[in-house]
Design goal:
By secondary structure, this protein is mainly α. The protein has helices at 2-8, 14-27, 50-59, 63-76, 81-92, 95-98, 116-129, 136-161, 165-183, 187-203, and strands at residues 101-102, 110-111. It folds into 2 domains: 1-31 and 165-210, no CATH class; 60-163, no CATH class. Strands 1-2 form a two-stranded parallel ribbon. Residues 42-122 form the DUF4806 domain. This is DUF4806 domain-containing protein. InterPro entries: DUF4806.
Length: 210
């Protein structure tokens, strides 16, 4: 049946390609839900899933929550820029989630530098440490350097502890897509989402094999 479904949509239109691209970015956490749907009080750190990260990204659109978030970050900072950056990142992201990211992104991973939480941490560091002897570009460089080290350490921790974070996160993403199929009201929508599931599994089949 899987082969039949794939064959039936083997020549998707440009419109479907665009929908697929947007949907894949959604399930991997690159598109935000509307802020009004987010219960900011339900956001707990460190974040462990892409869904939780999307919730934070959406909550940061709210000025009141962003101010509260920055105040929380400032309480984590010390007198050293890099140590402060590390403390903030450790507070925000679990190693399991950090393992699925790089700083600027690759073919298989998104870059944390593209997210609002990253730019918010960076801005907070600049406000805290910028001075006549400590220029903003130096703070930004220190943040990037420490972020790369943090992500590398996260990967090491995941591998040493034997976590299967990619599998868990991929399963969550697949669950999101499956729910979309169940919520679809038309046959056309169900066919499209079914094709998306098939495409997603095919692109990530290495995560479902031992």
């Amino acid at each position: 049946m899987l082969g039949t479904l794939l064959k039936s949509v083997s020549e998707p239109s440009t419109k479907i390609d665009k929908i697929l691209f947007l949907f894949e970015r959604l399930v991997m956490g690159a598109i935000d839900r509307p802020t009004k749907e987010i219960d900011s009080d339900a956001i707990h750190f460190p974040l462990r899933t892409h869904v939780e990260l999307r919730s934070l990204e959406a909550a940061l659109e709210n000025q009141k929550y962003r101010d509260h978030f920055v105040a929380r970050l400032c309480n984590l900072m010390c007198d050293n820029t890099r140590k402060s950056a590390k403390a903030c990142l450790q507070y925000l992201l679990s190693p399991e989630l950090a393992n699925t990211y790089t700083l600027h992104g690759t073919i298989r991973k998104f870059g944390i530098s593209e997210y609002k939480f990253y730019s918010t941490v960076q801005s907070a560091l600049c406000s805290r440490f910028r001075s006549a002897t400590c220029h903003e570009k130096d703070i930004i460089h220190a943040m990037a350097t420490e972020s790369q080290a943090f992500l590398h350490d996260g990967r090491d921790k995941v591998h040493k502890r034997g976590w299967r974070s990619k599998e868990k996160l991929a399963s969550q993403a697949l669950s999101d897509v499956t729910n979309a199929v169940n919520d679809s009201s038309t046959t056309e929508s169900k066919t499209l989402y079914t094709w998306i599931i098939c495409k997603f599994i095919n692109c990530n089949k290495h995560l479902y094999t031992s």
